[in-house]
Amino acid sequence: MMNADCSTSRRRDGFVMPTVVFAVAIMSIVAVAALSSASDERRTSRAVRESTVAVYAAEAGLRQTYGNWPVDPVKALNPGDSLDLGWQSLPNNERYRAVIYRMDNGGLQEYNVVVQGRRTGLNGGISTVIGVVGGVPLFSRAVYGESYVWIQNAQLDSWDSGNGAYNPLLPGTNADVFSNADMTLQKTNIKGTVGAVGTIALNNNPTATGGITANQTKLTPYDPVACPTGGYSPVTPELAAVGYTGNGVLSLASGQTLNLTAGKQYFFRSIVMTGTSKLALPGGGPVNVAVQDSIYMAGGSLANTSHKATDLSFSSCGTPTDGTKTNYWGLTGGADAYFSVYAPDKVVYALGNSAFYGAVISNIFYITGSAQFHYDEALARAASPKLEVQKATWGQFPGS
User: Fold this and answer.
1) Cβ distance 193 to 207 under 8 Å?
2) Tens digit of each residue's pLDDT (9 = 90 or more) over 315-366
3) What pTM value is reported for the model?
4) DSSP codes, 272-285
5) Residue 340 in contact with residue 367, Cβ under 8 Å?
6) No. of H helices and E strands in the chain?
7) What are the extents of the domains in the chain?
8) Do residues 70 and 102 make contact, with C-beta atoms less than 8 angstroms apart?
9) What Cα–Cα distance (Å) separates residue 340 from each residue in 21, 139, 244, 302?
């Protein structure tokens, strides 16, 4: 017969074994959990690192795209088009791909630059950043003079040709005038702001609805424009009709009318108009007339029948062929004189007492007599040759 001590020992042995097994199982689970947690932390840490590297790659790609802007391919983009620059390699097994999207409606340019950055390999992170590049409006004011502005007797106001015809009963107040040096105002009324870096001489009580302020901060001068490649405009049917020979000198005699062709760019050394000659744009624009030396329209007139200053532009280009000449531009207004002038290196005279509709960028600008100058606000939305990165436009998005 088994005694009580032996029975108790067997009962204890049967209890200890399951306890040990259970403890070992718990410890195994804890160990596996610890190992799994460590592995997860390692993967998480690596994912964060790879994601950060991908962001850096995308940022580097965005800066590279800004610094090596594909000028000509971007110019060829129509609204809604995109330009894929493909995958580019960086050090450390990093790559980026930039795609440029044109987002405007055909006026002042607006581009979204979407860049995807990534690390190569199975565990490579992916990130996407976006930046914005926009056109800088050239004609953001009615008149600009780099060295001097003289306005005498003239009346300046504004309207927007994008909203309809000019209404003299409802003149706008955005006809701003600025000189990057000095200015003289004499017996004039300007519906807009007036500013100059230097002094402003005030004679016979001139007024400006937005105020007249001297000693302003100097602006960055406007850049000169290169002349079109290929030389002066060749003889085409409309130019042959007025006797142009292809030598770059456009001379319109009294009674002659040159009907410009929509969508074309013309390039002349100089333009001279006498008598009742006319430079006409009967079919709408856009038309740009680039001139290397001088323009003199004292005997002629301009006729842009679309009544949109955005349709007809005159731009100074290159270096004058004769540096000893003033190479001034004498422009005549009229009921159909809707145009813009970009001549930051020229002396521009607004001749006569007729109306002008548009905007002027010049080195020196003079307007006298009783002329009316109406700034077309739509010019501020016109396409610009100058682009810049828009401030505070960087953004990050999930990669894919």
Assistant:
1) no
2) 999 999 887 777 899 999 899 999 999 999 999 999 888 899 999 999 999 9
3) 0.81
4) EE-TTEEEEETT--
5) no
6) 3, 28
7) 64-136+386-398, 143-381
8) no
9) 93, 8, 24, 12
